[in-house]
Design a protein that fits this description.
Elements: E1 6-9, E2 15-18, E3 24-27, E4 32-35, H1 38-50
Antiparallel strand pairs: 1-2, 2-3, 3-4
Length: 65
């Protein structure tokens, strides 16, 4: 069933929906976030599904003993 305002739904069940005031709501099975643009909604969705945001995932280094 497709609801009004649905922009995207991923295989994992996360969704992006447009709400009345022009903002976007990003939801997974546990939590929802509000974003002011579609770009930010897509970024939030990626962070929710992958568990991290670039570039933080690539900056891990071994500690020198």
């Amino acid at each position: 069933m497709v609801s009004d305002g649905l922009i995207a739904q991923t295989p994992r069940g996360s969704t992006i929906q447009r709400i009345e005031d022009g903002k976007f709501v990003v939801c997974d099975e546990n939590v929802c976030f509000c974003a002011r643009s579609l770009y930010l909604a897509e970024e939030q969705l990626e962070e929710m599904e992958l568990g991290y945001r670039f570039p933080y995932s690539t900056s891990f280094r071994k500690v020198q003993a």
